[in-house]
Amino acid sequence: MSHIITAGNPILKETAKPVTVFDKKLKFLLENMKKTLYEANGVGLAAPQIAVSLRIFVADDGVSGYEEYINPEWVPVGEEKTIDVEGCLSVPDLYGEVERYSEVLVKYQDRHGKKKQKKASGLLARCIQHETDHLNGVLFIEKALSLHKGKDVDE
Ligand code: NI
């Protein structure tokens, strides 16, 4: 498991670089990210969060299973947006309501460089948008409509 860096670290503000080489080193990085995601009980983890400025995130929404997204690009499907609570492994103990597209089409590559795409809705769609923001140096706290400690507003 890798150390997860937190808000204030300049690496989280960088625009991550595309992956161009699909080698053993990449496989090792992905295995490390997978381990780190599950040990931290996260839904998604972007490479910059473990101080690696590459366009990669891994995610498991608990429904569609674990997936690795390399060089991801998403577009909205329809105009509908949803407001829901988000947190982030790089922003411990802070939660906030963020407006995101309800459904997205994401294009990406797998660990072998093979091009893939999928439509996602619900938590996975939210996760894809949150994690892609990480690759562009953006944290959810910059987009949140409000921020609070603890997951529930009334706590
Ligand atoms: Ni995050």
Question: Which helices and strands, and how do they pair?
Answer:
Elements (H helix, E strand, L loop, with lengths): L23 H16 L4 E3 L9 E5 L5 E11 L4 E8 L2 E11 L1 E7 L5 E7 H14 L10 E4 L6
Antiparallel strand pairs: 1-2, 2-3, 3-6, 4-5, 5-8, 6-7
The structure holds nickel (II) ion (NI).
Q: How would you summarize what this structure contains?
A:
By secondary structure, the chain is α+β, with helices and mostly antiparallel strands.
Molecular structure report:
- With 155 residues, this protein is an alpha+beta fold.
- 19% of the residues lie in helices and 36% in strands.
- The protein contains two helices and eight strands.
- A hairpin with a 5-residue loop joins β6 (103-109) and β7.
- The protein is globular and about 40 Å long.
- The mean pLDDT is 96.
- Nickel (II) ion is lined by residues 88-90, 130, 134.
Work out the number of β strands. 8
Individual helix count = 2
Give the % helix. Answer: 10-25%
Largest sheet: 5 strands, antiparallel
Helix-strand topology string: HEEEEEEEHE
> Would you tell me the structural class of the helices and strands?
alpha+beta
* Beta strand %: 35-45%
Question: Widest sheet: strand order?
Answer: 1-2-3-6-7
- Radius of gyration, whole Å: 15 Å
Sequence stretches where pLDDT stays below 50 over 5 or more residues: none
**How far apart are the first and last residues' alpha carbons, in Å?**
31 Å
Summed over residues and divided by their number, the pLDDT gives a mean of 96
